[in-house]
Each structure stands twice: as C-alpha cells, then as structure tokens.
Amino acid sequence: MTDPILDVRGISKSFGALKASNDVSLDLREGEIHALIGPNGAGKSTLIQQIAGGLRPDEGTIWFGGTDITAESTVERARRGLGRTFQISSLAMEYSVLQNVMLGALGRRGGAFRFFSPVMKDKALLDEAHDALAQVGLEDFASSITAELSHGQRRQLEVAVALTLSPRVFLMDEPMAGLGTEGSHRLMNFLGTLRQRAPVLLVEHDMDAVFYLADRISVLVYGKVIATGTADEIRANKDVRAAYLGEEEDA
Amino acid sequence: MSIILLVEQVLNGLQFGVMLFLMAAGLTLIFGVMGLINLAHGSLYMIGAFAAAATAAATGSFVLALMASLVAAAAAGALVELTVIRRLYDRDHLDQVLATFALILIFSEGTRWIFGSFPLFLEVPDYLSGSVTLPGGIEYPRYRLTIIMIGLAIAAGLFALIAKTRLGIQIRAGESDREMIGALGVNIARLYTLVFALGAALAGFAGALIGAIQSVQVGMGEPVLILAFVVIVIGGIGSIKGALVGAILVGLTDTLGGFLLPHLFATFMDASAAMSVGSALAAMSIYILMAGVLLVRPTGLFGGK
Amino acid sequence: MRRETLLNVAVLLGLLVVPLWAWASDAPFIITLATKVVILAIAGIGLNLALGLGGLVSLGHAAFFGVGGYAMGILASHAQSYTPLMEWPLLIEGTKSMPVIWLLAAVTGALAALVIGALSLRTTGVYFIMITLAFGQMFYYFAISWPAYGGEDGLPIYVRNGFPGLDTLDPIQYFALCFGVMCLVLLFVARLAASAFGLALSGARQNAERVQAVGLVPYRLYLVAFTLSGAITGLSGALYADLNRFVSPTMFSWQMSGEIMIFVILGGVGRLFGPVVGATLFIVLEHLLGGISEFWHIYLGALLLIVVLFARGGLIGLLAGREVAHD
After folding, report:
1. Residue B167 located in a structural domain
2. Is there a single domain that holds both residue A60 and residue A176?
3. pLDDT of residue B174
4. Which of A209, B120, C2, C160 has the fewest CB atoms within 10 Å of its CB?
C-alpha cells in the first residue's frame, strides 16, 4: 500500500465548549475517492476548513505528500496542490466564465506580477482554461458573466477552476449541492473519472452519489469519525445506522 | 521642566482624551450597531458648537447653551438618519464614505451660509473660569477640570446605559446579531435612529464644550473626527471600552508629545533645531502610535477577530 | 466600437479641442483650467487603480499628491537658491528639470504608498478607510509643523520648471505636456488592467477567498497596486505644483483626498476614463456654480449624494450603460 498523500492525524478544534473536531484522523490515497459524510452540524465544514488552511487545529497535524502542513496558510497549501471547491460558490462574479478559469490557470503558473502583456491573449493559459471548461461541459458559456450563471453552472465552474490548478488532491465541498438530477448525474460520472488524475476528498450530502462513487467513506458525527470503510462496510455498520436513524427519529 | 508643568500637561491630555472619547464613542456605537462609517460625525460636533454659541449669545446662559448643543446635534442627527443615512446601511463602505462626505460639504457650506466665515466665540461663564488649586499646589483651569469630570461622568453613564438598560441590551444584541433583534420584536428602524441621535448628541456636546476653549468655526469638526478615527483604530472598532482607552492614550500622546519631544531633542541639539524637529515629530506621534498598534494588533487593543 | 470606447475618444478629443480653441482665441485662463483638469485627472487615475481595480477605498491619497508636490517644491527651491539638498554622504543638488522631478515625485509617492499600504493593508474595510485618512492627516500636520520648506505658509517656486525643447511657461505648451503625460498614464493603466496582474488584482477585489484558493496572495497584489497608485498620484502632485508654482500643506488635506475620490466617483469607479470625466465635471461645476454662488460646495454635496444614492455607475455609467469591459 502506498503512503497516503493527504494524512490528517488526530486533529481537534474547539469553539468554546463545542468540540467541532474531536481527534479526527483520516487519509486520502492515490487513485481513490474518499467521501466524508455526516449529519448536519457534525463538523464537516470545520474539518474541511482545517484541511484547506482557513482554520488552525488546536491539536494534531496535517500531512501532505509527506510534509507537515499544519502551520501553512491557505495560499501555501494551494501551491502545494490542494485544489479546493467551495460549498457556496466562491467565484469572481463580475468576471466572465473564462476569466475565472484563467485566474486558476494563472494561479497555477504563478507570476501574477506581469504588468504589460495582455493576459487574455496568453495562448498557454487560454488552452488550459478552455480545456478545463470543456471537461466540465461549460465550453459554450466561456464568455458568459459568472453572476448570470445558474446555480449548477457555478458548481461546474468551481470544478473547472480546480482543474486548472492540476492539483495533487481535490478537496470538494458538496459539489452537487443544488444540482438537478441530470446535472448531478453528469458531474457524478465526471468525478468518477477524476480519481485517475488525483484523489478526491469529497464532502457530499447526496448519498446515492457517495455510495456510487466512493472507494472509502468516513462518517463524522459530533466531531468524531465513528467509522471508515468501503460502501458495504459503512452500510452494515451499526454505529452509522444508529447515528443516521437516530437523526431521522428526531426529525 | 518641572513636575508641576508635567502634571498640568497630563491633565490637558486627559481633558483632550475625554473629549475625543465623546466623539469616538458615538462613531464606534454607530459602526457597531448599524455597520456604518460616518464621516459627517465631525459636522454634528460643529453643529453642537454653533448651536451653543448662538444660544449663549442670545440668552447669556452657558447651561442653556450646552442643552441647545445636545438638542440641535441630536435633532440634526435624527434628521439625516431619517433622510439619508438609513439608505446607506445596506450599501458598501465606499458608498457610505461618499454620501457622508457629501453631507460634510452640505453641512459645512450651509453653516457658513448661515453664520458667515468668521469664527464665533463661546465664553466660559464666570463660575467656571479662573483656576483651582489641586493637591500639591498645582494651579489648573477650573473649566478644563470641569470638562474632565463631565467627560468621565458621561463615560460612566454610557457604560451603565449599555450594561444595564433596555436600550443597552438592544444595542448589544444589535452588535452581535441584527436579525435577532428584529425577531425579538424590537423596532429596528427606531433603534437605529435613536442610536444615531445619541451618537450625534455626544458629538455635539463635545463640540460645545471645546467651543469655549477654541473658536467655533466651520471645519472645526473634521480634524477631531480624524483623531477619533485614530482612537477607534487603536481601541478596536465597536468597543466602548476600547474607545475610552484609545481616546485617553491619544490625548496623552498628543499633549505630552508636543511638550516632551522638543525638550528631549534639546538635550542633544541646539534649541531652535530641537524645537522644529521636536514639534514636527510630535505632530506625527499619535499616528506613529497608531502604526505601532497596527503592527502588533491590527484589529485594535480591544477589537475582536 | 463599444459606446464606452466612443465616449472615451470623445472625451479625449474634447479635452484637446477646448484648449486649442482657447489658444486660438487668446483665452489663457481656459487653457489653465483644462490643464488643471488633466492634472487632477491623473491623480484620479492613480486612485482608480487602487479603488476601481483593487477595491481599496483609500481616503488618504492626498498624502501621495502632496508628497509629489513637495518633491517638486524641495528640488526646485534648492535649485533656485543654489543650495544643495544634501552635501554628505553624497552631494545632491536641486533641479529645475521636469523629467528628473517627475521621476522623483513618482518614486517618493510610491515609497510613501508602500509604507502606508504595508501598514494599512494589514486591515480591511472601515479600518482601511480610517487608517488611510489618518496617515494623510499625519503628512498634513507634518508639513505644517516642519518649517524648513515654508511650513504653514507653503513654498513658492518663482519660475516654472523646464522641459527640454519646450517653453513650459507658455500655457498651451504646458497643457500639451500634461496632456501627453495623462495619455501615457492612461495607456499604462489600460495595459495593467488587461495584464495578468490586473486579472489577479480585480479577481481579489471581487473574491479574495477565490484568489487565495488558486494560490495567489491578495495582500501582495493590493500592496503593489497601492504603490503604483501612489506613484501616479505623486506624479500628478508634481505637475499640479508646477501649474501653480506653489506647494502648500493643503495639498495634503483630507478635503484633497475627498476630491480625488469624487473625481473617480463622478466619472464612474473602475472605468478607465472615469477620473478624466469626473475631473472635467468637477472643474466645470466649480467654475459654473462657483460663479453663481460662493457656497457652491452645497450643490456639489447634493450632486454627490444623488450620484451615490441613485446613479452608482457615475456619468460614464449613465451614458455608456452598465456594462464594464471584460476583456
């Protein structure tokens, strides 16, 4: 078995009395999709933020490609190859779709401090950008203004921007949220092919997608990982059933 | 340089500090509750001073003059809140800056129109003029001492208002969660007008009190406004405690800097060079203090995250 | 051509034709007004780089305007009194040469912006506004209390500085010079906006989180933009001082910062020609309304209020529609 590329080791994070992450460990290996599921309020967002660099854990370490990145900033992690998509689309809304992917391509190449040559005529960057748009099926919308895209299209654009970064790991926060059936099927198939390029840590509410896609699933409840395993193992796990069924009884 | 002189300067710094607090407290409340940056706060200070000067000239009563400053500034504050300011709460900071800058132009020129370009004078009444002898044989102007005490009393009152009263609870709720107070059935529009008028009254009152030391003229408010901004940056935005600490720090730094720095430079330079270098540096001292705070704590001494 | 481009061309032509007509009909006052428009427009273009592209609401740009003005004043005053600026460790003489003065004004403007920006960009939002305003005021008080170069009274320069091959005291020639500088600055900013830097900077304004997630550091983008912005505004300060042959602390005043911002807003934030249109409008209003009433700032205030509350795209927004250039 190869070493995991992303390795979260025993991280904890508290907000006052609330333990949002409680000794969480999980890892991500080459070629896999590892899904993170859990009821609302289980601490998924807090965990993602700690992995992406927006929050610093109180305890524990995060390793990326064999390096301890616990103290690194969001930007440093992005440069190492952590490609993130946001739960709520986080895009430059006044920009065209193409400009948003160009921003990603520029971030990957570095060298934002070029002041004179017109960036929208940079052949190499344009090729990367159009390529990424084609992969998510947004090529016809390259010149649309981002603010005018539908919700689903913005999700696709999020993924396209992450693609331009050619990341070593994809960190995807609910990429299917708000997509219609057809949209989520398209994205599901696409994500299935993505794991050959880089492993995906997937936070997702859509259980069909998770059980269809994921090689492994971790279940987070009240800030703790209560189970990690294959889809079948998770389905059979008593704690998981209790956690989910319990929640359904409450609701 | 004697100790007596130094104590006198410290008191002057304190007096300047409490006046800055009256300005900064209003600004920081308005920002904390409504999220608004109000450049026209200096105009309300000016309106208070003019109202006081005009009333004193008409009635001869200093107490009436002070009351007039409160009423006029609060009324002007409520009026602009109802007509202009409330359209700005949902706008970005740039729009707030521009609209309140426009209000400065309107208020300043309007005042010049009504009162002319010459400064007015507000006399300190007899019962507050002269000086008192403090313990240690220090002679200090009675009026300035009164200002310090009034300022500290208002600060105490403001803390009590926010800690103890219904309005205070609503203000604190408004600072943490705006939708929440709406849900609790508080009339938000009225609360905002009230908070704005309160901040305006504090500024107007400060303008009247200072107007008796300096002259009352158009443009008197903006330098004080900018110092109040420095106070807020140092103290941390939205924090009344921060405004008090920041105001006193700025008051002391400004006064003592102007007093001590020329002396300090005189120890190794000739007198006239020391005077010019010292006073030029003193003019920058509070901004250097602000830069220092920014380096260590970008959100101010009492600011949140 | 897009309507905005047409409008831009019209504005440039208008700014060129009016002074030429004034020259032909011997009305030097109009030429001076046009020169003032052009110089103030440059100051606004500087601010627009920080404000329009970077979203940095700086209320302290008078600091850079004044620094540029004093760079000119100090160099020229030493040249006119034949005393060196500094003798040790190296001899620095004053100069009356515009290109040298411009360079130094831009460099000192940039340096001031670098220092102020490095500190103020540690914060965001209202903090940034208050801090830039405060630092501007610091320069103002410093200029007042520093007696070496005139203190409160300011510093007159008796003869306008020289430019090789031109008679700068001839109003139309000085206008042409300033107009040329403005065109170069516009070209520079247009290229900048379309460059990789412009893409990243404007992206950071729209969504700093997004820019970080692709591995770029907003702080550095902002700081470079702020510094360049200071350089441009500093340059305009030197031109302005040369127009008046006088520098004084009022160049540093908060009103000046506010006016530079008004140029940008009246014309339209983020529009390349916004500050040019805004400065033109401002000077025309000052001239027309100032003729009617001594208290013309009331009307200016009312107009500004109306623009902010009801016409957020500025004049160019009204004339050219909402659409902003996208590539």
Report:
1. yes
2. yes
3. 75
4. C2
Closest-CA residue of chain C to A147:
C206
Type of residue at C187: L
Q: What is the pLDDT of residue B218?
A: 94
| Whether B231 contacts B21, CB under 8 Å | yes
Domain count, chain A: 2
Pairing of strands A67-68, A59-64: antiparallel
**The amino acid at C10:** A
Model confidence at A178: pLDDT above 80: no
pLDDT at residue A1, as a whole number: 52
Please check whether residue B151 lies inside any domain of the structure.
yes
The DSSP bridge pattern shows strands A216-221 and A224-229 to be antiparallel
Supply the pLDDT for residue C325: 45
Per residue in B41-79, pLDDT (tens digit) is 999 999 999 999 999 999 999 999 999 999 999 999 999
A118 and chain C in contact, CB less than 8 A = yes
pLDDT confidence tier of residue A245, bands split at 50, 70 and 90: low
Residue A193 lies in a domain: no
Contact C127 B237 (CB under 8 A): yes
> pLDDT tens for residues A13-26?
998 888 889 999 99
Q: Which residues of C touch B102 (CB under 8 A)?
A: 300-302, 304-305, 308
CB of A224 within 8 Å of a chain C CB? The answer is: no
Q: Å from B36 to nearest chain C CA?
A: 9
Residue A192 lies in a domain: no
Q: Do chains B and A touch (3 or more CB pairs under 8 A)?
A: no
Decide if B213 is inside a domain.
Answer: yes
Do A161 and A173 belong together in one domain?
A: no
Write the residue in C200, C207, C212 that is nearest to A106 by C-beta: C200
- Token pair 């990957």 is found at A108
Domain that holds residue B40: 13-218
Among residues A166, A193, A218, the one where a domain terminates is A166
Same domain, A76 and A41: yes
- Cα distance from A117 to chain C (closest Cα, Å)? 6
Residues A141 and A162 in one domain: yes
- Quick one: pLDDT at residue B305? 47
- In terms of residue numbers, what domain contains A6? 1-81+169-184+201-251
Asked if residues B18 and B155 have their Cβ atoms less than 8 Å apart, the reply is: yes
Least Cα separation, residue C152 to chain B (angstroms): 12
On the question of pLDDT at A91 being above 60, the answer is yes
d(CA B66, CA A68): 64
Nearest to B287 by CA among C140, A231, C156: C140
Q: What is the mean pLDDT of residues A171-180?
A: 84
Mean pLDDT, chain C, integer:
92
Give the CA diameter of chain B: 68
pLDDT at A244: 75
Closest CA to C58 of C145, C127, C159, C151: C127
As given in the structure block, the two tokens for residue A238 are 């008593």
Going from N- to C-terminal start, the domains of chain C cover 33-85+92-253
Flag whether residue B109 sits within 8 Å of chain C, measured between CB atoms.
Answer: yes
Asked if the C-beta of A111 comes within 8 angstroms of chain C's C-beta atoms, the answer is yes
How far apart (Å, rounded) are the C-alpha atoms in residues B49 and B206? 8
Q: Do A17 and A64 lie in a common domain?
A: yes
How many structural domains is chain B composed of? Answer: 1
Q: Is A219 left (phi over 0), alpha (psi -120 to 50) or beta?
A: beta
- Interface touch C326/A96, C-beta < 8 Å: yes
Residue of C nearest to B110 (CA): C298
Q: How far is C254 from chain A (nearest CA, A)?
A: 31
Given a cut of 70, whether residue A9 has pLDDT beyond it is: yes
- Report pLDDT for B304: 66
- At C100, the pLDDT band (50, 70, 90 cuts) reads very high
Taking residues A28-43, report their average pLDDT: 90
CB proximity B130 to C under 8 Å: no
- The residue of chain B nearest to residue C134, with distances taken between CA atoms, is B226
* Amino acid identity for residue A222 in this structure: Y
With an 8 Å Cβ cutoff, are C199 and A94 in contact?
A: no
Q: Could you tell me the pLDDT band of residue A143, with boundaries at 50, 70 and 90?
A: very high
Q: Is C322 part of the contact surface with chain A (CB cutoff 8 Å)?
A: no
- Token couple for B86: 């409330």
- A30 shares its domain with A153: no
